[in-house]
């Protein structure tokens, strides 16, 4: 596993880096012998330290967690515990996903765009009919069941996920509702 540890406005010393490396590797290897990569970003805001962890477990499966505390080690340990809890909770379904890798070939290729927000000035006129594109990248729309899509959305910390429904191939969406539940949109064509 390739591990990257960075600090935002703080210096991540060797002792903290070693603590992160040994603990994160051991937690991930409990559930997955071979995660691809992990990124840890440590930051400080006033008196609180924040640890953001992003682990790429397999193709299309990212697990994200964050932790805060008044000590950098405790902040990392909180985030690492959340990663371990998510991996433990979804281990069986993630392993089944890897066994059924044939479904991954059914994924659609798509273009993902990031658009600039509209100007907030009342008198400003839009320059054209098209929005300003800030970034564009390739992405895949996987073929999943609604349960697997909700799991991937939770693991990745995403508010919404588009997927192809495994039973009929139609495009569907799962999203996090304001009340904390997960919504599922299945258009009837």
Automatic annotation (TrEMBL):
Keyword Coiled coil: yes
GO cellular component, one term: cytosolic small ribosomal subunit
Sigma 54 modulation/S30EA ribosomal protein C-terminal domain segment(s): 132-183
Major localization listed first in the record, in broad terms: cytoplasm
Molecular-function annotations in GO: ribosomal small subunit binding
Name of a matching Pfam family: Ribosom_S30AE_C
Entry's localization field: Cytoplasm
Example GO BP: negative regulation of translational elongation
Source organism, top-level taxon: Bacteria
Coiled coil residues, start to end: 80-107
Keywords of the record: Coiled coil, Cytoplasm, Translation regulation
InterPro entries assigned: HPF/YfiA_ribosome-assoc, HPF_long/plastid, RHF-like, RHF/RaiA, Ribosom_S30AE_C, Ribosom_S30AE_C_sf
Biological role: Required for dimerization of active 70S ribosomes into 100S ribosomes in stationary phase; 100S ribosomes are translationally inactive and sometimes present during exponential growth.
Family membership: Belongs to the HPF/YfiA ribosome-associated protein family. Long HPF subfamily.
HAMAP family in UniProt: HPF
Quaternary data: Associates exclusively with 100S ribosomes, which are dimers of 70S ribosomes. Interacts with 100S ribosomes.
Full protein name: Ribosome hibernation promoting factor
